[in-house]
Design goal:
By secondary structure, the protein is of the alpha/beta class. It has helices at 19-26, 30-37, 51-65, 90-97, 115-129, 203-225, 241-254, 260-270, 276-281, 288-300, 336-341, 348-360, 394-411, and strands at 4-11, 15-18, 41-44, 73-79, 105-109, 134-143, 156-165, 174-176, 181-184, 190-191, 200-201, 233-236, 308-315, 319-327, 344-345, 378-384, 387-392. The longest helix has 23 residues, at 203-225. The relative contact order is 0.19. The structure holds acetoacetyl-coenzyme A (CAA). Acetoacetyl-coenzyme A is lined by residues 29, 31-32, 35-37, 113, 150-151, 154, 189-190, 201, 203-204, 206-207, 210, 237, 239-240, 243, 283, 285, 314, 316. The site of acetoacetyl-coenzyme A has 26 residues, from helix 2 and helix 6.
Amino acid sequence: MEGVILDMSVSIPHYFVSHEALAEARGVAVGKYKIGLGCHSMAVCGQGEDVVTLAAEAAWKLLEKNAGSREKIGLCIVGTESGVDHSKPISSYLHSLLELPSSCRIFEIKHACYSGTAALQMARNWSLQNPDELALIVMTDIARYERHSPGESTQGGGAVALLIGHSDDDDYFLELSAKSGIHAMDVHDFWRPNYLSSALVKGKYSIQCYLDGLVAAYDDYVRRSGDNEEVDYLAFHVPFPSMARKAHNRLLKHQGIEDEEVIFEDFKERVEPALWANRIIGNIYSGSLYLMLGGLCELKGNELSDKKIALFSYGSGSCSEYFTGTFGQRIPQLGLRQLLDSRIEIDVTEYERLHDASLLAERDGSYNEELDLIPRPFVFLGVREHERIYRRNEAFFKENLESYETLSNELNAATIQLH
Ligand code: CAA
């Protein structure tokens, strides 16, 4: 079977701020953030972290846990809406940091939060023609809104990496449906002009566009595939966790279920449990649907094998895609809880300082050889003569490689057979 998802991994920033602290600082009732939006804390990047280092870390972990995969990567696509350059793609930096083969097609793709799904679907098709090779898909973003804006509490950051390839048996993670339902329209619901570092958004309108896209893409899926069978789980793009509740509610009503109590019970069973990681990491834009998928894997483990899931991907602007997947026998364990436990909590003053520092780090002349390195595998040292400088953090590799290897082995008791 070609074009299946073999495995996945996740990376998240080193710091976080709680929504209790943010609510107090912004003079907002904490219930609005925690109950209304469903957000409990949000990830904040430290000095030396950016979308490239997050992407490199997620991909590096994926390659580490799949022995022999690096040499077989023939395609590497990065999906992001936090591009660091108008021309040079993030995949170029990954190519050197991860020591990928030279015979490897690399590029970056953008369509708001939809880019990861676009990359994934491209990789599936590529895999049909290149069954002996593997595709590496990396979604990486830092969600930034203006401070004090309604979107501020839905920020976050992180990266998800997927390995796509061939499997002779059921030793894979997820097989996607042959058909997808698509809906596209030209709207200004959420966007970021080239001259701005934070996104602009028409909040309520963007929710409406998302829900309209969901229903239209679902109808298109049923029309194209003839499949309207019930699924075991549903995962959605998660700009903030309550959006998944709104999406589930709208979809079930569209399917003819009106009873709010029935809908709520169904939400608690098929959707809610998987949202736990999104609640404490925040929006990671392109990877956020896949973070929800990862949250489900971490929670249910091997129970998922042979179960069916519906996936809804939304990218503002907009493009919506509804598709389904059937789990194989190799449910990835991502070590998400360990990762989250290793984060450091900061207060709102520090979050604001880091927010400003990350913007300054984007400017030419920010290069700092003496940067106090965070304990992460790759670090961004700043910009020197208009070139971004990244470094493998040798101290991290020295101190942590052994524990990473142990973790990888634990997570990955069965190594996939690479053909
Ligand atoms: N206790 C409990 N609940 C409370 C509360 C309290 N004290 N105070 C308010 N609430 C509830 C409100 O009733 C509301 O719930 P419902 O939506 O169920 O009615 C919820 O909290 C949010 O309150 P508001 O609607 O007043 O919030 P807001 O207008 O200030 O901001 C937002 C909400 C528009 C989503 C804003 O966070 C935003 O702009 N976010 C970014 C845009 C976004 O995420 N859009 C989603 C679709 S676009 C997309 O998906 C792409 C992407 O990734 C961005």
